[in-house]
């Protein structure tokens, strides 16, 4: 793309979480665990004196469909850094369905802009701006921290500067089905729901992928977030010996291993991916 830059950021599926209110946006967020996935968001940016944003999702046919001509979280993060550009983001997964695409879109956009304008912002400053935007717009709590790298991610503390543990070496595929979005702000704004989430939060820290899915499924079942559609799929997965849980926050299921394909394929459009090994990166540099 002449005079432009393209970056990619992987998404993140949270298995369980607990909101933590800090003194400011940087220290507010969540503890919890999830997996960083090889599907995510590509952001294309071109120089401009004014900001315009286009959000696209690629259909199964391969054609891109325009979802929106605005993104308050992306616009907010760009304004924080005094940046203007023409921005187009594109993803393959459903938006708002628990795949961490909001965080991925902001991180991909800022990474591409940093490259486009040769700003030297660095990972930490980009992540801080993306995290603050997620907190302000109530679109996520810990996805930005997770998406900065790959693997099975465990966050024992909240906030963008909190350390995370990353476990790698998981080579089997991840499959997911979605029954539709869950509007994240509605969940995060409900004190009753957040109290249930806090009570369901596991104290144990997972060391293996099996432990992660076991803790996640128990969290889904006790947090009040489980939907009837998800419950049915989880029962089928359990009967087949497939590690699975609910995408947080989304009305869907994600499962690990080759056997998951046959179980999930009967419940709708199947998405195949893997556990990512790294975070945001430049795909095409400015010219």
Protein structure class: alpha+beta
Number of helices: 9
Strand content: 25-35%
Low-pLDDT windows of residues: none
Note the gap between the termini. 8 Å
Short note summarizing the structure:
The chain is built from nine helices and twelve strands. The protein has helices at residues 72-80, 101-116, 122-137, 143-147, 184-188, 191-200, 209-222, 228-240, 260-264, and strands spanning 5-20, 29-47, 52-58, 64-68, 85-91, 152-155, 165-167, 174-181, 244-246, 250-256, 271-273, 281-284.
Protein model, in words:
The protein is α+β, with helices and mostly antiparallel strands and 287 residues long. It has one domain: Ribosomal Protein S5, domain 2. The protein is built from nine helices and twelve strands. It has helices spanning 72-80, 101-116, 122-137, 143-147, 184-188, 191-200, 209-222, 228-240, 260-264, and strands spanning 5-20, 29-47, 52-58, 64-68, 85-91, 152-155, 165-167, 174-181, 244-246, 250-256, 271-273, 281-284. The strands form two sheets. Strands 1, 2, 3, 4, 5, 6, 7 and 12 form an eight-stranded mixed sheet that branches. Helix 6 runs antiparallel to helix 7. The protein starts with a strand and ends with a strand.
